[in-house]
DNA sequence: TTGTAAGCGTTATCAG
DNA sequence: CTGATAACGCTTACAA
């Protein structure tokens, strides 16, 4: 920067002013400075700038699992919205681990990001205290945690789950097995509770033995399906509460040589562009991932602008594709 | 930091020494400092530290498309390996756009990352000059660019493509349609060339009309398939040179009411855990994504350590699952 | 309109 | 072993 200044015959202060689009400098000096910058190929040091201004124009995004396409879509949407507002996104992948999440949150705090977007791995909110202590704007995404007081962007699946319950019952399913998420996540608990009560209301309560908790990943879904289908009074349909567990369940069912939906129906939470191409096309509960990411980013931007954005509640919806036998029987 | 210093009755220099694990401080002063840090909940400012040390302990990773699961897997692997070596990864998503890629590279340079990992969106290497000018360690991943002189981590698919060609011919396919990648990407060109020459050697050269270029994304694959299947002398098999285009092609073929592999065979480049669950299970060329990511990160670390790491060449392999009719006919 | 100078939170050099 | 002190590269009153 000193080089640029001397090259243009001005002070560093003027260079800085040109760089930051201040009104002060003359057209003429501005041109000289710009020319010098061009000639020297100068690029400002964002570190030094941030140290001085205490703003990094960066968001930290901590997601639970990057290879889960649901979160990948969210990440992309967050990043697009952030960029549209001049922010850059540092993405951290917690891999569904609470400790790793804490580590990352700390790293991001140390780097002085301007705001934090977190999809909490578990209910354990120890990491939140540190964030709150620094007063850093924070938005929770997808999952909430018990005593948190910060904006939350989530999706309400109650209605969709009720629709699914009705569809299953309508298709003649007597016993529905549920592959639920971890009970120390809000989505794990809520989806199970909402679906359970919807089925109960229809007179087909879920049998306690027909509920297995997984960890939102493929392998756990596969094992859960194995367990459920090994039961003497096995379910006639399986509902997995996230896409990875659903795929694991489908794989297991196939390995058992069962046909879907003939021998057993399957429905899963989350949709993917290629789900219609599966054998069979899966009936799903679709979440508005792009809207989630965008809303969360906007929420954080509002928070940074000292506004008080409300929670965002989006709605999931049922997409029937026949994997529960609903076309044939319902 | 000043607070910590006065709390512990030492100077900031000593606090710094404790923080950085210098040998100097006494056990006793060290303990006092640590206690003060704990009590005040002090966290060092990574920005200031980096400004002083000119090291950020951060890699920049620019990928072509985050929602392409192939790249998501790579990103995850890079991040794991980097973390194991004490580096943090800033992920930027170019969305297959050259301009966006340039923007991001610049942003990362400005933030003074310690090294850059790039999956180039196109052959256009204008962005590289800026990187080279700064002398920043750079590693290319998945795709190479013409005159680049920096380590490249790539996958050799020649053998797998030859296997695929033989399999297709063996299954009785007379006319193979190719949905290739953009010809301004190394992978787009190479895969087409290698596959083409393999088929030619077997006496079944690809007809020029049977080659359509896409952009490595779903929609382009779908359109390419529509075009190819609309031909009077349409192909008996379609080979898509990446997973997204392959899925698009499969969707199109299904919409046309064609059966796979009965009416048309399909094979795609890239594998995914759920490909066996598709209808039909797809025959693919699988790339070692995790190894790619890890190797690239290691390569960058070596470069930073002033070593001269060689290029890394991994190998893809054919996985037959029957979508080309190879079980029935081959 | 422009320049001077202080300071952002660290680390590193040099005395003590 | 420890403490002043000078950078690191930038922004921003304040003065001119």
From TrEMBL, chains A, B:
CDD domains assigned: HTH_LacI, PBP1_LacI_sugar_binding-like
SUPFAM superfamilies noted in UniProt: lambda repressor-like DNA-binding domains (SSF47413), Periplasmic binding protein-like I (SSF53822)
Regions annotated as coiled coil: none
Keywords of this entry: DNA-binding, Repressor, Transcription, Transcription regulation
Domain (HTH lacI-type) ranges: 1-53
InterPro entries noted in UniProt: HTH_LacI (IPR000843), Lambda_DNA-bd_dom_sf (IPR010982), Peripla_BP/Lac1_sug-bd_dom (IPR001761), Peripla_BP_I (IPR028082)
Designated name of the protein: LacI family transcriptional regulator
Source organism of this protein record: Umezawaea endophytica
